[in-house]
Amino acid sequence: MDNVLYLNSTGSTNNDAYNLAVKGAVHGFGVLSDTQSAGKGRLGKNWVSPAGTGLYCSIVIRPNLSFTEFPKLTLTAGLALCTAVQSFLPDINFGLKWPNDLYCLRHKCGGILVESSTPNCPDEESFVVVGIGINVNTQLDEFPLELQQKVTSLHILSGEIYNIKDLYQKIRASLLEHVYIHENRGFEKILHEWRKRDVLFEKEMQWVTHDKEVITARGMGPDENGHLLAIDSDGKIHEILSGDVQQATNGEQ
């Protein structure tokens, strides 16, 4: 398999791919590891990476887009991931939780962390690293106890065992395809398809503001910039630029 570095173990595939991108790794180059000792999630969280059971990879993207478009690639990558996984399990419905999580039956199955080159990086050298973690063949008891009511895996959902390298290839191809669509047909096309899979749409959800205020409002989906909109009981529309939103009932992660 070309353009991929296989590792038995690493700290973080995102760190590895980022360092390789700085050194010139090409568009579509990936790092795939059997396990991670310091897997990275959003907002400084760790990504639990049981050895041999999950897909832990990071893919270098050099998009033909302005730097201001780079944040939207989180949604583009999410749609690509959801589409690819759906093709492996066509009878199971997957959805997306803003901005970067793959969900099924109210349980988290995968996540994305997008990191980009610095704003002052020359256009011809700019890049994005798309980190992807999926619970593939993981058994429930392999997750930490505090996560077992919140997460799932492809194996738990279907009873099947999946070839992780085959899944990686499918996801990589889907990511490159969706980045191409974003480049050539615009973010609007991506956003239209993403909204169809929005697990928070019209659901009551909560988040904590920078002022430590807990807000409860109903999800309206992401806008044309990829920011999440929600409307509260007073009719005020909130624009959420970043952060962690949770469904307000039943303890969704």
Task: Describe the 3D structure.
With about 250 residues, the chain is α+β, with helices and mostly antiparallel strands. It folds into two domains: about 5-195, Bira Bifunctional Protein, Domain 2 (BirA Bifunctional Protein, domain 2, 2-Layer Sandwich), CATH 3.30.930.10; about 205-245, SH3 type barrels, CATH 2.30.30.100. Helix content is about 25%, strand content about 25%. It has five helices and twelve strands. The strands form two sheets. Strands 1-2-3-7-6-5-4 form a seven-stranded mixed sheet, sandwiched between helices. Strands 11-10-9-8-12 form a five-stranded antiparallel sheet, with no helix packed on it. Helix 2 crosses helix 4 (about 165-185), helix 2 (about 75-90) crosses helix 5 (about 185-195) and helix 4 packs across helix 5 (about 185-195). It starts with a strand and ends in a 6-residue tail after the last strand. The mean pLDDT is about 90.
Main sheet: strand order: 1-2-3-7-6-5-4
Q: What is the ordering of alpha helices and beta strands?
A: EHEEHEEEEHHHEEEEE
Q: What is the tally of beta strands?
A: 12
Task: Report on the biggest sheet.
Answer: 7 strands, mixed
Can you give the mean pLDDT? 90
Shape: globular
The CATH class of the largest domain? Alpha Beta
Helix content range: 10-25%
Q: Can you name the CATH architecture of the largest domain?
A: 2-Layer Sandwich
